[in-house]
Amino acid sequence: MLTKRHFLFALAVVLLAFAFTYSSQPAEPNEIVIQNFAFEPSTLTVKPGTKVTWVNRDDEPHTATATDKRFNSKTLENGDRFSMEFTQPGIYKYYCALHPKMTGQVIVK
Ligand SMILES: [Cu+2]
Question: Would you give the DSSP letter of residue 102?
Answer without folding.
Answer: -
